[in-house]
What does this fold into?
Amino acid sequence: MTAPNFLTDFDATQYTALSFLLAIITITLPKGSLLRKGVLTLQILCVIQAYVVHPLTEAHNSAVTYTTGLLLGNLTARYADRLYLHIPEGEFHRVNEAGTKEHATNLPWTQKLWWATELLGVTRGIGWDWRVTGIPKARAQTRSRFLTVRSVKYIFMYTGLYLTGRIAEAIRMGWPSVEPAPLRETVIAITSNSVFLHLFIVAGYAIAIYSHFGVMTIPLSLVCVELQIGPRGWQETEHWPPNFGSLGAAYSIRRFWGHADPQQLHDTG
It folds into this structure.
C-alpha cells in the first residue's frame, strides 16, 4: 500500500480543509520566521490545488462539489484579507468586555491557536475590532434556554429538509405509495399544478438557504456553549446571534441586504 501523493491523490474538499488548517498553523507560528513562510507557501499551494484539481471519480457527489466551491470562494477572500494582505497579529484584535483591545503577540501558543481559529472562522467580527454593522441583536438567554432553543431549531430544520426531499421525490415518482388509486390521482393532480409547484419550489429554496448556514453554526454553537470549549468568545451565548435578521426590516432592497440577508455573508474578506 503506497502513501497518497499530495499533488494528485487529494480532492478539492480535502485541499480546502487542509488549506484552512494550514492557515491557522501559519498564524500561530512566530511572525517573520522561516517556518511560518514555508507553511504559508504550502497553504497557498493547497488553495490553488483546490481550484484546479479534478474530482477523484465520475461518481463524485455534485452537491459536495457545489458546496465546496462556495466555501472555497468565501475562504479565499477571507485568507486574502486576514492572512495574505495583512499581518494578522498587528491588524486584528479581540475586544474584551472592558472595550480594551487584546494583542495576539502576547499570547502563549496554545491561546494563539484558538485566536487564529476564531479569526479565520468568524464571519461577522463579533467580539473583534472589525465587527460588521447590522447584526441582529441576540436576546439575553441562560445557557440552558440557549441549548434548548437551538436544539429544537436544529430538529425542525432537518425535519424541513427531510420532508422537502421526500415530497420532491414523491412528486417525481407519481406518489407510488399512496393508496387507493383514486386518492393517488387526486394527490397527483394537486401537486402537479403549476401554482403548487411554484410555491413548493420557493419554500424548498427557503429551507435550503436557511439550513445551509444552520447545519454548521447550530451544532458548533451547541458544542462550544455546552462544553465551554473552543475560542473564548464562542463559549458565550451572546456571540451566537441569529444568522438572519428580521423580515420586518426588509422593506427595501438595500435594507434587505443590510439587515435581513444571511448574516454570515456580511464580511467574507
